[in-house]
Write a structure and sequence with these properties.
Layout lengths: L1 H12 L10 E3 L6 E3 L4 H10 L8 E7 L3 E6 L24 E6 L2 E5 L4 E2 L15
Antiparallel strand pairs: 1-2, 3-4, 3-5, 5-6, 6-7
Amino acid sequence: KQWYQRRVRERKKGKKPKAKAEEVVSCGKCEKQRKKMRTVMDVVNRIQWDESYDPEKVIVGYLDRFDGLIEENFSFFDWSDVTTVDDWETFCIPKHRVYYFKIDDVIVWDRRTRLDLIFNPKTVQCSNCQS
């Protein structure tokens, strides 16, 4: 009920209501209409639980603090919370360090270019946002 009251107040003031995850929002760089990006954990959960994706074929590109951008196999990582993992037994990275996911040498999710072929297979990238 609170969210409804907030939307009514925003409409009375002439403000646009806040966009939900599935609503189309404007890109700040090019003003073309695009959807909001899904998080890294959304993509990880989709790859882990959706039978159409084989985790053995997925490559993760992440930023190492010392070595720069590195690619590793999806199954190399422990995707649980960083604070709950024993550093000596499993390899876990903070989710903000993940930059892209590749399947069969094709990038299917990229944070830098806002590409999301996992949840939005018909995503069109504009030339301004691919930099």
